[in-house]
């Protein structure tokens, strides 16, 4: 029986890393969301890279280094409303537009991040 290919395998790690870099280009210019981030964005960027690698079916480095992701719990210290979630998704959409992997893979990735962003809303 053949193993099912993960989204990580299909998209590829290099594409995931580039997607996060492109996403953060938008975050760096967003006055609303930037207030939710530390001054140095690199650690947050690297955590998101590791998170996506793991969440999409790649290596488990995020959990090895930080424990269970507990996304909502880890983000509860910030007030995240519909506005913030929409802005976050807008930057992710812009990054996806630049991505070079296939539209069906972009759609599958979008479905994942869309649900995750809605789950983060806590106000």
Structure description:
- This protein is mostly helical.
- It is 68% helix and 0% strand.
- The protein contains eight helices and no strands.
- The chain starts with 6 loop residues before the first helix and ends with a helix.
- The model has no long low-confidence stretch (mean pLDDT 91).
Which spans of ≥5 residues are poorly predicted at pLDDT below 50? none
Globular, elongated, flat, extended or rod-shaped: what is the shape? globular
Which H/E pattern describes the elements?
A: HHHHHHHH
Question: How confident is the prediction overall: mean pLDDT?
Answer: 91
Strand residues, percent: under 5%
Gap between N and C termini: 46 Å
Number of strands: 0
Write the layout of secondary structure elements.
Elements: H1 7-11, H2 13-27, H3 31-34, H4 42-55, H5 61-66, H6 71-75, H7 82-98, H8 103-120
Helix pairs in contact: 2-4, 2-7, 7-8
